[in-house]
Amino acid sequence: MTRGPAADAALDAIRVRADATPECPGVSVVPTTWHGVPVTRYVPPGVSAQDPVLLWFHGGGYRLGTARGFGRWNAGLAVRCGVEVVSVDYRLAPEHPYPEALLDAVLAYTAAGGRRVVVGGESAGGGLAAALLLAVADRDLPAPLGGVLCSPWLDLRNASASFAEDTDPLFPKASADTAAALYLAGHPATDPYASPLLGDWSRQPPLLVQASTTESLREDAVGLAAVAPGARLELYDGLPHAWHIGYPEASGSEAAATSVGRFVAEVTASTEVQTT
Amino acid sequence: MTTTPVRDTVLDAFGLTGRAAVVTGAASGIGRETALVFARAGADVALADRDAVGLEDTARLVRDAGHTALVCPTDVTVRAEVEALADAALAAFGRLDVWANVAGVLRYFSLAEAEEAQVRTIIDVNQLGVYWGTAAAGRRMAAAGRGSIVNVASTGGELGVPGLSGYGMTKAAVLHLTRTAAAELGPAGVRCNAVAPGFVETPMVALHYTDSEGRVDTDARERLLTQRASGAPLQTTGTPRDIALAMLYLASDAAAFTTGQTLRPNGGVTMS
């Protein structure tokens, strides 16, 4: 792991490319801060400030990506789910390693206040959302309605069978090991807040967990479904890592996003019944 | 005959494995060393200081040693910032076991000629800063039913030293706040102790031999260290590590029966 001007410049260049602001027709894009944490709100038409919110964490191995850079996907998610999506610009490694991202996640979550919240994310963002679910339960904070984890990175040891199969050019073991080292910065990978797969999932709300059969993180998703009683596992055949974002036109992306929309509708509808 | 492995069980009591600690004044000197020692003892550490650049350097030292640091730029004179620091540590780590109030400033001035701003600054940082920290930690630790607060005082809080009217007054206040906090928080399972260091060379005391452009007068430095060492039975001055290890003892379960006390790593300059 090297740090220095060259490495910093390379990282900056990648970040700038990843942050190209896309179009989000019909959706209000509102940058703001929640408890001091920068977030971008994607508000579809007809949604009010009392309605449920989908608190989202972008992917990028805990070292890349921004809320705005995933704007098209998040805006589409907002429309499809009929809820406001709030994408969190949690701080990134290597400048801000563990637990800075988790702190930002907890702060943003608590800032949602009385609003009913579904949490979610893709890749490292899915891992962060999962860590947030554990942290919320450990801290006796009000529970979210559910969790949406798309290709989540849940075990930073990167030692599962699907990593060994080496069929995933987007997130091979070498990339995962580099990203894990930068994020952990010495913190043990066996801490459930870093590797949520190792946490206690007995007290968790319903979860939708999606992965591809050929991605490195397949076994992370399969493993979570095995230990989380409330998890619904969906495996999609032969698609790349976090295909929803990279290949939004693919049929698997449409199916996966539709499923997310249905899940969010389910978990938000059930509490509306309880509260009325 | 079976025996308990003494070495393991004894040293475990001095460790902080799995604990979460907050250290104020962590950007330099005794605060930085305390953060490093706590981390090496197994704690996750939240680092607080006004000096954000120094904090990042301390965080890097902690992480390079294979441990976990949270960077929390904080002005301890502002109560809301100290409360936010406690909230951040709890949010990030899910627990708060140790709180070390190390942040302090040193000012020499004549009591008779003191300017109001000088006196207020030193009270704000050294006295109120520790007060807000003890309050923020005490409330949260009492709710959890456990915790250890360690405050940094000074020999100057117990000895009358010319020029240290402000500093000494605030450090004496820290010693008494520590006793009061121990009495008030003890029934809730929270300990509060003080460390009163003797002379330790840190950036805080470098003002004695450093000019306004940062040039060190090596002769003046040598004279000061020699003079301070000669006043101590151990004939030496202290290091930040000497103090941090005393802090670790009070922070750890090794001091489970100890509260309201003053520990004096000072080479023997004062003995009671």
What does this structure look like?
The complex is a heterodimer of chains A (276) and B (272). Chain A is α/β, with parallel strands linked by helices and 276 residues long. Chain A has nine helices and eight strands. In chain A, strand 7 (207-212), helix 7 and strand 8 (231-236) form a beta-alpha-beta unit. In chain B, 45% of the residues lie in helices and 12% in strands. In chain B, helix 2 (29-40) packs parallel to helix 3 (52-64) and helix 2 (29-40) packs across helix 8. Chain B is globular and about 45 Å long. The model of chain B has no long low-confidence stretch (mean pLDDT 94). Chain A binds chain B through residues 96-100, 102-103, 106-107, 110, 135, 138-139, 185-187, 193, and chain B through 44, 62-68, 70-71, 88, 90-94.
How do the helices and strands line up, and which of them pair or pack?
The complex is a heterodimer of chains A (276) and B (272).
Chain A: H1 5-18, E1 28-34, E2 37-43, E3 53-57, H2 71-81, E4 84-88, H3 100-111, E5 117-122, H4 124-138, E6 146-150, H5 161-165, H6 173-184, E7 207-212, H7 218-227, E8 231-236, H8 243-246, H9 251-275
Parallel strand pairs in A: 3-4, 3-5, 5-6, 6-7, 7-8
Antiparallel strand pairs in A: 1-2, 2-4
Chain B: H1 6-13, E1 20-24, H2 29-40, E2 44-49, H3 52-64, E3 69-73, H4 79-93, E4 98-101, H5 116-144, E5 147-152, H6 165-185, E6 190-195, H7 218-230, H8 240-251, E7 262-263
Parallel strand pairs in B: 1-2, 1-4, 2-3, 4-5, 5-6, 6-7
* Total number of strands of chain B: 7
Order of helices and strands of chain A: HEEEHEHEHEHHEHEHH
- How many domain units of chain A? 1
- Assign the CATH topology of the largest domain in chain B: Rossmann fold
Structural class of chain A: alpha/beta
**Contiguous runs where pLDDT drops below 50 for at least 5 residues of chain B:** none
User: What is the helix/strand order of chain B?
Assistant: HEHEHEHEHEHEHHE
- Average pLDDT metric of chain B: 94
**Assembly state:** heterodimer
- CATH domain class name of the largest domain in chain B: Alpha Beta
Structural class of chain B: alpha/beta
User: What's the architecture of the largest domain in chain B, going by CATH?
Assistant: 3-Layer(aba) Sandwich
Q: How many helical stretches of chain B?
A: 8
Q: Write out the strand line-up for the largest beta sheet of chain B, numbering strands in chain order.
A: 3-2-1-4-5-6-7
